[in-house]
């Protein structure tokens, strides 16, 4: 699996999904083309999915937000008879490298979180309408919806059969959502997760696995009725959508990327990618009409889309670039003006969506398993939302005083309202709250300094950056940090960073990305799952996995 | 193009590293300099600071004429930064990077390891000056006083050399470490020097000679192995330091030799044949040979402890990283990686001493210590020749390396100097025969009266065969300042 994966797609290219729009209600049909797997070597039978299916789903969810703001309810259902979705494709998992499996799970989790949050973030509510088998990752798709409806045809059931069948976990949020979100009793959840055939009918409601079961004959009508009810109850701001057009992106021969506002320089020998984000290249929209007219060419939306694409590209296609370096260059005041325009107009659906997108994107960066560092150089614009990057990455270094022969504006960090609540991490705290867990008063003190350009000494003093270096030390210190980082075990770093990044309270999200994912990744490395006699390899052969009995 | 042979004096600090064009390091060093001068001024008694001392100053790294001699007041001594000339296309001599071009910049992955080694080495340099700070008050001659100061100023220069590396290559951390080198102080409760042996006072001149012979030789071995570093600036620095270090060991060897010579001379002149007729010998104001042997036992074994554990992962890591080589690495003919080699290491089994093969990579310390012992044996042989020539029957011996040890497999075990394991009681009963007692120390101290007339020497030591810089016997090596 070494082909380059492209995360950009559009409806004309979909193989696996269809969407029909009917005013405030959209219906999403999962209808996987079994011969259109992203890689060779498996067929996507029974509506099972691989990364390609999920890339399309992510695209649909994103377009639903930006291109179809009129949609208030999305009904997710199957385009096939007798099966809703059989989950992630087992042959694909069996054949995938460990790194791909891990990346795949992370991306699917992010997509689930995205449509799960759509209701709270922008009033788009997802309903799962389940007819037929809904197993494993299939039920996880449903779990991430805000309302689950199951037909009572005496055969349709929801199940999480991973443990008995595959010797792995329902890792796309499955285990976590049954107890955390559905609030199922843990002993019943234990029973449920051991039952290959799953649970159907009334018991599924009783056990809180679904919100309602409906007689098969009335199923479609009730689903439609429910969708209308929800739509009517919604006070979502609507309007006319904007088009998400293809990104302008060129990939250099050395693997470097060039977008309009994001540049990714690749240093393969050093194992590092440097992402440089540009400040605004246009004026703040004069009015909301102007913002809508700009559409996907507006500064903050374009920057987000490009950065998002770059991060995903690096995650999947550049596994050996272990260090991501974040730089910015531009006018911080201009950046803050763009940001303030959106923050002041959150009641407008587009302004709101752009900000909600930044929230998701920053979270995506938070859980990116690479060493990350931000360099606050002269001429940079780490202000407001972009300053969040400083506390998303593992370390930050800042230039102090003037540098010989460098006439760019002196490096400074400027805080704004954006740093005090609008962009929480997965742990539901802001990045500053997480950073200063032991001294909450530090956050209050920083709130007082919104709008001030904090130069190196002040930034260090107030704990906003890791270290500051002057002209004398900068090059050497940065070089040495990077070389040292490159000499450590990537596994140990991934583990260390993931643990240090999420201080503070646990949430369903942190449990999914921390606990559930870590356990799953461990199991993926164990012979009981992935060894030659493990369950994933033997799946479909009629022979069960041969398990080593030692408990670890 | 930088002239690597002729040191540039265009800045406050003599150097051959192009300091005047390296503004950042120059700035850092000039900031550090006043603290250093304060350290020096507080250390050495005032009247000596004002005296004119006939010192050599390193002015070049040309092996044919790297130093020049002249009278100088010590605070005005020009502590320079001199690196041995760059060897063209030098390669990393050992470890997993063996054969790759030597590093001219600190490799990030080894930064901390390198810094630690440089800091430890740097910490010993000022420490010995601190340990010897009061000796000038009891110098047995102006010649010896001058040698003491020569050693002192050069240890000071060695501190400069290490500080330069820290400031040039280790950024902010390096500057902090450089400041800490002046903050720690030998014997201090607050912030002592890093290695135990460097926190003991050097109470008398025989101790000083033993120290420069045995402990400076440990320094020499450390410098030899750092001279094999793949980090080229460290290698070049240490190579040049070694040229100065030779003189320190010369001071030690001839100092002990002259002490022995004087004792033997008094014995023969007075018809004393039994070297153990201690009271009789001491009555003539010289130090009996058995007491000198005891001092040797003490200083040799303390110095052995400086080599650390026989089997050491730290040492293995440093070698494998190419940060620190073995003694004369470039002359060894193995693969310089020690992937499968073994080296016999002392071990202690069922109450017996045995040499057992250990992976050579982890036995780097043991090997360097063996090289040290061989190196140290040379001078002992020459001392014995002096004794034999005088007709006295006595032989100085290096004790077995199990004797009187605090570090390594032998630590705390009651071995005698021949390497026999005794019971603690047996050991305690005999310890005063092997190690200097307080009474021995008091006696030596009683001889430490200063002699400051040119050409004259204290009762317990012979004059040198030749003067420094070929000066005549009555040359005034120190023009003492009289307040
Ligand atoms: Fe030295
Ligand atoms: Fe020395």
TrEMBL record, chain A:
Keywords: Lyase. The keyword tRNA processing does not apply. GO terms for molecular function: enoyl-CoA hydratase activity. It comes from the Bacteria. This is Benzoyl-CoA-dihydrodiol lyase. It comes from Pararhodobacter oceanensis. GO terms for biological process: fatty acid beta-oxidation. The keyword Lyase applies. PANTHER family: ENOYL-COA HYDRATASE, MITOCHONDRIAL, ENOYL-COA HYDRATASE-RELATED. InterPro entries: Benz-CoA_dihydrodiol_lyase, ClpP/crotonase-like_dom_sf, Enoyl-CoA_hydra/iso. Its EC number is 4.2.1.17. It is an enzyme of class 4 (lyase).
UniProtKB/TrEMBL annotation, chain B:
GO terms for biological process: phenylacetate catabolic process. GO terms for cellular component: cytosol. SUPFAM superfamilies: Ferritin-like (SSF47240). Signal peptide: none annotated. It comes from the Bacteria. Gene3D superfamilies: Ribonucleotide Reductase, subunit A (1.10.620.20). GO terms for molecular function: oxidoreductase activity. This is Benzoyl-CoA 2,3-epoxidase subunit BoxB. The lineage of its organism: Bacteria, Pseudomonadati, Pseudomonadota, Alphaproteobacteria, Rhodobacterales. The gene is boxB.
